[in-house]
Structure formats: structure tokens, C-alpha cells
Batch of 2 targets.
Target 1
Amino acid sequence: MIEGALWRRWVFYNIPLILFVFVLLFPFYWMIITTFRPDGELYRPWNAVNYMPFWTNNPTIEHILYLFEETNFMRWMLNTMMIAFVSTIISLFCGVLAGYALARLNFPYAGGLGTAIFVTYLVPQTLLFIPLAEIIRNFQLGDTPWSLILTYPTFLIPFCTWLMMGYFKAIPKELEECARIDGASRWKAMLYIVIPVAVPGILSSGIIAFTLSWNEFIYALVFLSSPDQKTVPVGVTSELIRGDVFFWGPLMAGALLGSIPVAIVYSFFVEHYVSGLTGSVKG
């Protein structure tokens, strides 16, 4: 009986989990190995003597140095950080207010409006960038960070609104009603009672919105053209892929360094704030 349970655990849990973790982490491992592998090993034929595709005995930082010395990578990082941060703040502000209104205020067609807002998030960006490009051109915002700061909320606000609407619905109405009975206005009840309880949801929405902004490619590719104005996803791919020549070392170095800020945001906020605040709310 025990052996059968162990066998089922390995077949239906352990082995699928190991395969999932391997498939999930292997691209990052390959990215790290390629970043520190010298060109002589990168372009060595697979049937060459002492060829090791998954390891290197001669690690180098020449690709990272090339990235900082021969490209505008630091400028791309600053552009991406600023655009992602500002667009996330705008989207969170609008999403929190809209989510609260749809979850708490009783007005006609509130449910249908919430569904319509979420449906707008599902509209592909490949359909939206053409009319948005016309708007950006009319306001003369092309090739500036504002072209992305003002267009990213078009898909971030619906997502944040839908996420916060569900989180506000999970907060007991009695908390807000007690504050209203004690004389607080709806605005004060929301600001001092509901919003502090919803901080884990707000942080979660902000982290996901920041990640979506950081990784966005289509709008950045269409609206930005100057090398100094590009973001990391567009700058790395456009400057390090020239025709049919792929600079694999700097490409992987750019991808590795470009993923570090998002990893820091996830690990820091989720571990120290979201999980802790959620635990304190449950307690």
C-alpha cells in the first residue's frame, strides 16, 4: 500500500514537477552560459573536439563589456525603468479607483461595465497600435517616452481594474459600513479602511503591471526610432541583430541584465510585502 502511494506520488507529482522546473529554468541557464561563453566556443561546430554545449571552461565578461561600451544599454535601461514606473503608477491610480467603484458602488450596468473593461484588455495590441500611432502622430509625441507612458495604460488600466475589482469584492463590506456608521464619508472609508486592507492586491497589480510594461515590445518598436530613446527589449534586438548576423553573446547578456530588475521587484515585494501583508490580513 505504501509502495503504491509512493509510486503514484512520483508518477503524478514528483516527475511532472521536475520536468516543469527543468523546462522553466533551462532557458535562464542557457542565457547565463551564453553570456559568459567566449566567441570561440559559441561558434564552434557541434562535432568539434572537446565541444561542451552546456558548460564553459573559459568564462569571460567580454560580452557584458561590449554591451556597455559599444551600445546604449544603460540608456535603454533608464528609459525602460522610467517608462515602466510612470505608466504603472498611472495605471494603478486609475485601476484602484475604477475597481473600487465597480465593486462597491451600486449603479446600473456595473457588472457589464466591468466585463467590458476586461474585454478591452483582451484586444490584441497588433490591432491597437495603428490607431494609437495616428493619435501619437497628431499630438507630436512620436519618438519620446511619453508615447509609451500614455499608451501602456490602454492595456494596463483594464487589467488593474479587473484585478482590483475582484480584490475589493473579497474585502468584507462590514469594515466599510462600520466606518460609515462612525461618521466617515465614503471617500474617507475607502482611503483609510479599504485601501490599507487592499495593499497586497495593489502591490500584486503593480508588480504585474510593471512587468508587462518592462517586457512590452510592439508599441516600443513602432513609436520609438532613435537609439537613445529605445527600451531594453527593442534596443537589444534591433542593435544586436544586424541582417542575418546575430551577436549571441551580447544578446544573451542584454537579456540577462534586462531581466534582473524584474526579478528584484518580484523577489523583494512578493517576499517582504505581499506575502507578509496577506498573512497579517488573514491573521
Target 2
Amino acid sequence: MKIVTRIGFWLLVIAIGLFALFPLYYAIISSFRSGAALFTIAYLPERFDPTNYIAVFERQPFGQNILNSIIVAGSVVAISLALGMTAAYAFGRIPFRGRGLLLMTILAVSMFPQVAVLSGMFELIRSLGLYNTLPGLILANLMLTLPFTIWVLTTFMRELPKEIEEAAFVDGATPWIVVRRVFLPLMAPAAVTTGLLAFIVSWNEFLFALTFTLTNERRTVPPAIALMTGSTAYELPWGTIMAASVIVTLPIIALVLVFQRKIVAGLTAGAVKG
């Protein structure tokens, strides 16, 4: 019975792995095809033609689009962690009236769909003179990343023993020093996890990036890929789109592989007391 259970378990793991990895695998082999070969079903690579990868950077400023995504996602992560860390200290350590209500309000903001706040966010960005600029995208993406960053870090902050904080205050530390030198090293796993999630959300964000940018030089990679055109207005360059998709997926995979131990530690931190 144990052998049957173990075999069934590993078959399920293999099935889930194939289901998750097959789209990426098919995108990779499709990125090396062109012409009529794209519309034939083949599960093994026939040849490795880098034409589509070269075309991605020749037909449009895709290198600039990648740089824009890096700037926007990196800035969003830095600002989200900075504000989330200080907010987590306030919500987790400082008792004040309306703390629970304010925390629930922050959570409620994340429940609104992007379309519901799109018009209001557009008017705000236009009134600030940030339309078709990277700071405008950073401001818009913060609405998506700040709520869950504050919630995750606040939950982690509440699990830390208060004796550490009290000992730091006895030694003459200020609240800012406590946050920066005491809590920040302890919250590194949670910070890495939430930072990576914020990076992925900002990197893959499409609606705000499409709405708040006008020129191709200011777009991030999701709208840049969606607006790719072929030799005519009626042609969809599937090979080029697949190549671009593979290129922008690699940084996310690399980040997950590099920080996988921190991610697991951050996800399981605070799950068990004592």
C-alpha cells in the first residue's frame, strides 16, 4: 500500500510539473521557428534559428523596454519595502486608536480591480504631469504592491519577541535605529519574499503600463510585447513574440533560483509559534 501511495504521489508531482513547465518549454521551441513552421505541431526542437531573437531588438527598442521594466520594478520594490517596513513597525509595535481599521482599509484597497481605479489613477497621474513617464508607472504600481507588502511584514513583525526591542531601547536606541539595525536583519527572509512578489507584480503589470504610456520608448515589456507587429498591420509575429516572452521570463526564473532559500524561509516564517 505504501508503494502504491508513493508511486501515485510522484505521478501527481510529475503531472503538476509538466502542466506548469510545458507552456514555457513550448514557447522556447516556438521562438526558434518562423514562417509556416510556427503553425505545425512539434514537441521537439527541429533547429535552433536565432532570427526571432535578433528581430526582437531590431524592429523596436526592446532593450529600452527591458531597461524601463527594470527601473520601474526595482524602484517599486525599494519604495514598497521602505514604506512597508516602517508601516509594519507602526502596525505591529505601536498601539494607537484605529490601527485595526486602518490596516483593514489598506487590505480593502488591494481588493479593487485595476479597471475600477483606472480612470481615477489616470486623472491623478495626468494632473501630476507624470503621463508617459516612468515615475507615473512607479506610482501606479505602488497601489498594487504596497497593501500586501504591509500585511506580510506586519504579520512577521508581530511574531518577533518584544524583548529584543526593549533591550535596544534600554541601550539608548531610537525607533528608527531599532527598525534599521534590529528588525531589518531579522526580517530579511520576509523582506526578500515580499520584495520578489512585488518585483513580479510590477514586472508583469500590463493595464497601467498600457494606459499610462504613449511612446514605445517609455513602455515596459508587457505592452511592448502585446503591441508587436509584423511586416504588415494584419500579421502577428508569433515567433518574435515567443522570443520576447522567453527573454523577459529569464530574469524572474533567475531571481527565484537565487533567492529560493530566502523565499521558503519567508513563506514559512511565523507559521509556528514557540
